[in-house]
Amino acid sequence: MSNRLPISLSPSSSTSNKVALKPNEYTKGLDQEHIVRLTEDAYRHFADYTKAELKLTVQDCQLLTTMNESTKEKYVQMSQMSQRLMKEMSKLQNAYMDFSSFIEQIEQVHQQSIEMEKTAKALDEYSRYLELKLLKINSTVTHKK
């Protein structure tokens, strides 16, 4: 079988290294052993291709599994962080509620101090008025003498 000549499928392409298709050579190429060998080669190539495709599919699934696990871990971490933040926010709200009464009292004290300052200024002005009046009276009394 190794003494076969190359078969040319197109009759018009006859060159020095190609021989035109002859009916008896064509039937030689289709003997049982040659067909079995070609079938086995095709089957082996198909099996290799299928194995490679399955291997890639398995690798893709493993990658997706790894990505899913990583995403799951990130979401667990984010959930824990949000729970901690909620606890801290609750503590801050409680502290604000505790201080809000103090802040209200401070505001009341501040308003009272403003009122006391106004009263002190009014008293100071009144005392100056009285002092000036007293000085006037004293100066008129001393002038009359």
TrEMBL record:
<feature type="region of interest" description="Disordered">
    <location>
        <begin position="1"/>
        <end position="20"/>
    </location>
</feature>
<comment type="similarity">
    <text>Belongs to the BLOC1S2 family.</text>
</comment>
<dbReference type="GO" id="GO:0043015">
    <property type="term" value="F:gamma-tubulin binding"/>
</dbReference>
<protein>
    <recommendedName>
        <fullName>Biogenesis of lysosome-related organelles complex 1 subunit 2</fullName>
    </recommendedName>
</protein>
<dbReference type="InterPro" id="IPR019269">
    <property type="entry name" value="BLOC1_su2"/>
</dbReference>
<dbReference type="GO" id="GO:0016197">
    <property type="term" value="P:endosomal transport"/>
</dbReference>
<feature type="compositionally biased region" description="Low complexity">
    <location>
        <begin position="1"/>
        <end position="17"/>
    </location>
</feature>
<dbReference type="GO" id="GO:0031083">
    <property type="term" value="C:BLOC-1 complex"/>
</dbReference>
<dbReference type="GO" id="GO:0032418">
    <property type="term" value="P:lysosome localization"/>
</dbReference>
<dbReference type="GO" id="GO:0099078">
    <property type="term" value="C:BORC complex"/>
</dbReference>
<dbReference type="Pfam" id="PF10046">
    <property type="entry name" value="BLOC1_2"/>
</dbReference>
<dbReference type="GO" id="GO:0000930">
    <property type="term" value="C:gamma-tubulin complex"/>
</dbReference>
